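Exercise 3.2. Students should predict the tertiary structure of the chain below and write it as structure tokens, then compare their answer with the key that follows.

Predict this chain's 3D structure.
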Amino acid sequence: MKKILIINGPNLNMLGKREPEVYGKDSLDDIRVWTDSKIKSEATTEWYQSNIEGEIVDRIQAAHSQDFDALVINPGAYAHTSVAIHDALKILKIPVIEVHLSQVYRREEFRHTLLTAKAASAIMSGLGKQSYYIAIKSLID
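Answer key:
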């Protein structure tokens, strides 16, 4: 059974309340429960969320020495700005999939630059909560 770490960045704790027309009506906890129920016999997950860039970097660094088979990350707005998260991801020797609930290329121009994605094995964008499930499923298969 695969062990997958899922890291979520800033404002994702406000899902369901923040721009539901863009991000959907589900909370992050709703997405976690839904995703885990779909993959329960195939993988175990550890979910983490922080609004603080340094805490996300610390969690990625800690994952380097733990027994995770893969990482799924939704860096939120840090995707567009964080060289620190990008560099931390490059330390990992496991597959990394970056997910975005919205289709970033249909949004504001500044969202089209994904610095952190340059350190990812793959990117899922615009699939809503399915992004997490599809990312995990691809890592399992």
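Discussion points: The CA atoms of residues 43 and 113 lie 31 Å apart. Residues 28-39 form the longest helix (12 residues).
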